[in-house]
């Protein structure tokens, strides 16, 4: 915390001589926290990991940047606290933007939507069947909240447009990420590895934005690390390490504002994080604490007893960015390119004269093993290079991979022939998209998927080289915006590595030439951009909205409560007095938080209120979006008679040491839905409040005499 404040103060003080504004800039932030109860989380694909409360709210952070000399030439970057961008979400966002702003203002060509890759948000918003397995189908309310929130963030940024300047900086952050498949990394050529100090990227890339008066209005940072500081036993919605970094930065820059309500917007976006873990102590065995087997990530041959040491706080400290004063100036020019690519069928030259093709999508065995950040649920281990008879017999019974697909995907053993299954609709995409945005000499590649460390480096380098060779400035900076474009899915690449077949390789769905195919298309795009030429638009992806199966319907059950109680009743109350630093816990009889998820966007299920000593009305000091508050929600009982579910909501406030002493209370706002005798649905908005409690200072007040 201290380090962060110091960096920040140095930064703001460091803003020196004002330059003339070189862009129009607008920022917008909007709530995309999906249903906080009963929704499978997107990330670990762990059955039973459902949302059950909120730690941090999720946000879409949008930046519109326009040229000074032509305000209609603009580009938009949106970073969202979500698992990944989604083709269907993006299509719907563009159709809404068209209604709001006309056909040409914000389109697939000039907007990049990127997911931070938090593993602690609700799922159900992707259109391909494979991603609906863990989320039990499509989830309409989850989807709508994300679409509407992204559109709203762009609308806010649009109306915020004003003259400003953009600065670029970069720096190394050590002790904040490790390679989670180091045995795969070392299979990259020695000469290539020798050019780097680390087996992960340690660089944080930063764009800083100030208005015409040189007042800070926002930053976007890119850093390669998985937001998996929260593990797969977590049920609280959270932006994880990146969401926390955004929260901290925005709280410091927007004093007195509730989270998500301030003007200054800080996005911590994803990059080539495919093989990068935040769990810096490495994967260890539960019983011995020893590091587990490097290749298979098992302990004594057994798969499960692994823990990754969680360093949420230290990771976040490391992610807190430097906002230094030696930024370089980027000249004013905006450009963008977008292309759909049929990745099932790209021809690449693997060596001079030797051609090869990418394959229809398929997942390998090691994919099902998961990673050390979140092991899979079945009996798979990483490093699986051969088919397993038991599993292949099951899979063959459902959807046997064709011989052609097996040959194309080799050496990856095919577990799921996702490109060959179309029941009930496509399992994985063939049509994906790639994008490039240019702001001055800063170029962002919107990469569809999770590039690994080395594949990201190769892509950045070859794009930069192509641009510079074709007339871009020598100091052109290329960053990789991960899980973006209209990225339908996580896809990871293992560079040229064929042998190790850990999770990343198994999830490289278009076969061994996946990376070469992306590089080829990005290089062509970079050439086109540097020559001012257009690129081929490519084939449109399908819109599968009508086909989606929605299975997790809320209205199958209703809320219930014990007789003689009311929704909002306090089941466990606060004590009378707390010393700052202690935690208050209050439990309420509650309804299902999914009932009013949409109404609660921009709102809060809980508040901490301060009661002024002079008797004035209470003032809200915390919401459910604060780091120091959490609420967890769980079903406690199913009523056989009414078929309703009783549930409890537990609020915890970890009172910060610097909390002003005084009287406080905690309130929960909710909605309950019950079915009436005649079958209709009755909706009850309720609230409940704890008793008022005192918070006293942790430090002895200065005037206390020493008796
Ligand atoms: C997951 O995180 C929780 C909370 O930090 C911790 O209690 C638990 O042991 C972790 N589980 C594993 C498998 O690391
Ligand atoms: C993508 O390529 C595959 C393989 O050639 C082909 O079967 C498929 O029809 C193509 N899809 C589209 C939409 O062009
Ligand atoms: C895991 O799979 C192997 C075969 O590869 C089998 O021998 C073993 O019994 C399985 N273990 C469990 C726990 O299912
Ligand atoms: C449940 O909700 C879905 C969608 O929200 C709706 O189509 C369906 O008719 C509802 N079912 C009942 C029994 O109310």
Automatic annotation (TrEMBL):
The reaction(s) this protein catalyses: an N-acylsphing-4-enine + H2O = sphing-4-enine + a fatty acid
Signal peptide annotation: 1-18
Domain spans labelled Neutral/alkaline non-lysosomal ceramidase N-terminal: 23-519
Entry superkingdom: Eukaryota
Pfam families xrefs: Ceramidase_alk (PF04734), Ceramidse_alk_C (PF17048)
Gene3D superfamilies reported in the protein's UniProt record: Neutral/alkaline non-lysosomal ceramidase, C-terminal domain (2.60.40.2300)
Record keywords, A-Z: Hydrolase, Lipid metabolism, Signal, Sphingolipid metabolism
Residues annotated as domain Neutral/alkaline non-lysosomal ceramidase C-terminal: 525-695
Name of the protein this chain belongs to: Neutral ceramidase
The family this protein is said to belong to: Belongs to the neutral ceramidase family.
EC annotation from Swiss-Prot or TrEMBL: 3.5.1.23
Source organism of this protein record: Priapulus caudatus (Priapulid worm)
Isomerase keyword on record: no
């Amino acid at each position: 915390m201290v380090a962060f404040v110091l960096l920040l103060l140095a930064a703001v003080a460091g803003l020196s001589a004002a330059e003339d504004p070189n862009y129009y800039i607008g920022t917008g932030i909007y709530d995309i926290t999906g249903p906080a109860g009963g929704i499978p989380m997107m990330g670990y694909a762990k059955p039973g990991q459902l949302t059950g409360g909120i730690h941090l709210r999720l946000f879409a952070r949008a930046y519109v940047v326009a040229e000074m000399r032509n305000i209609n030439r603009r580009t938009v970057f949106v970073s969202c606290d979500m698992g990944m961008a989604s083709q269907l979400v993006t299509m719907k966002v563009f159709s809404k933007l068209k209604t709001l702003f006309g056909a040409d203002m914000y389109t697939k060509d000039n907007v990049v939507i990127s997911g931070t890759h938090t593993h602690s948000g609700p799922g159900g918003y992707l259109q391909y069947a494979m991603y609906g397995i863990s989320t039990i189908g499509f989830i309409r309310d989850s989807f709508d909240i994300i679409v509407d929130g992204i559109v709203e963030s762009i609308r806010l940024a649009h109306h915020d447009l004003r003259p400003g300047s953009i600065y670029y900086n970069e720096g190394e952050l050590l002790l904040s990420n490790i390679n989670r498949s180091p045995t795969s990394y070392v299979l990259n050529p020695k000469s290539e590895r020798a050019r780097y100090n680390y087996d992960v990227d340690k660089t944080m890339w930063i764009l800083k934005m100030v208005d015409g008066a040189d007042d800070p209005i926002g930053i976007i940072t890119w850093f390669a690390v998985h937001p998996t500081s929260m593990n797969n036993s977590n049920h609280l919605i959270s932006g994880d390490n990146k969401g926390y970094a955004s929260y901290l930065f925005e709280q410091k820059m927007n004093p007195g504002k509730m989270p998500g309500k301030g003007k200054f917007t800080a996005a911590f976006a994803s990059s080539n994080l495919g093989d990068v873990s935040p769990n810096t102590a490495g994967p260890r065995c539960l019983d011995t604490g020893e590091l587990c087997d490097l290749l298979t990530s098992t302990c004594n041959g057994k798969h499960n007893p692994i823990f990754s040491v969680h360093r949420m706080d230290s990771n976040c400290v490391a992610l807190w960015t430097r906002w230094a004063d030696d930024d370089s100036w980027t000249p004013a020019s905006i450009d963008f390119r977008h292309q759909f690519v049929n990745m099932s069928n790209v021809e690449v030259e693997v060596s001079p004269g030797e051609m090869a093709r990418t394959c229809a999508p398929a997942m390998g065995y090691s994919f099902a093993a998961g990673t050390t950040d979140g092991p899979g649920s079945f009996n798979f281990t990483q490093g699986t290079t051969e088919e397993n008879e038991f599993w292949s017999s099951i899979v063959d019974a459902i959807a046997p991979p064709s011989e052609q697909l097996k040959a194309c995907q080799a050496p990856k053993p095919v577990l799921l022939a996702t490109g060959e299954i179309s029941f009930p609709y496509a399992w994985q995409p063939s049509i994906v998209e790639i994008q490039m945005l240019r702001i001055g000499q800063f170029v962002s590649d919107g990469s569809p998927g999770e590039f690994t460390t080395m594949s990201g480096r190769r892509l950045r380098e070859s794009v930069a080289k192509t641009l510079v060779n074709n007339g871009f400035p020598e100091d052109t900076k290329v960053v990789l915006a991960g899980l973006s474009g209209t990225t339908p899915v996580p896809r990871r690449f293992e560079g040229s590595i064929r042998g190790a077949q850990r999770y990343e390789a198994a999830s490289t769905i278009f076969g061994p030439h996946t990376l070469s195919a992306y590089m080829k298309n990005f290089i062509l795009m970079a050439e086109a951009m540097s020559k001012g030429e257009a690129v081929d638009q490519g084939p449109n992806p399908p819109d599968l909205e009508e086909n989606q199966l929605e299975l997790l319907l809320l209205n199958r059950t209703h809320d219930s409560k014990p007789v003689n109680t009311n929704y909002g009743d306090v089941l466990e109350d606060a004590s009378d007095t707390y010393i700052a630093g202690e935690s208050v816990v209050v439990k309420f009889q509650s309804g299902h938080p999914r009932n009013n998820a949409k109404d609660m966007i921009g709102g809060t299920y809980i508040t901490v209120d301060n009661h002024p000593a002079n008797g004035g009305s209470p003032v809200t000091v915390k919401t459910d979006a604060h780091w120091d508050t959490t609420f967890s929600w769980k079903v406690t009982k199913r009523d056989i008679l009414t078929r309703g579910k009783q549930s409890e909501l537990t609020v915890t406030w970890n009172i910060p040491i610097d909390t002003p002493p005084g009287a406080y209370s905690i309130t929960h706002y909710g909605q309950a839905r019950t079915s009436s005798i005649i079958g209709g649905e009755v909706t009850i908005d309720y609230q409940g409040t704890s008793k008022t409690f005192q918070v006293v200072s942790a430090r002895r007040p200065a005037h206390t005499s020493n008796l």
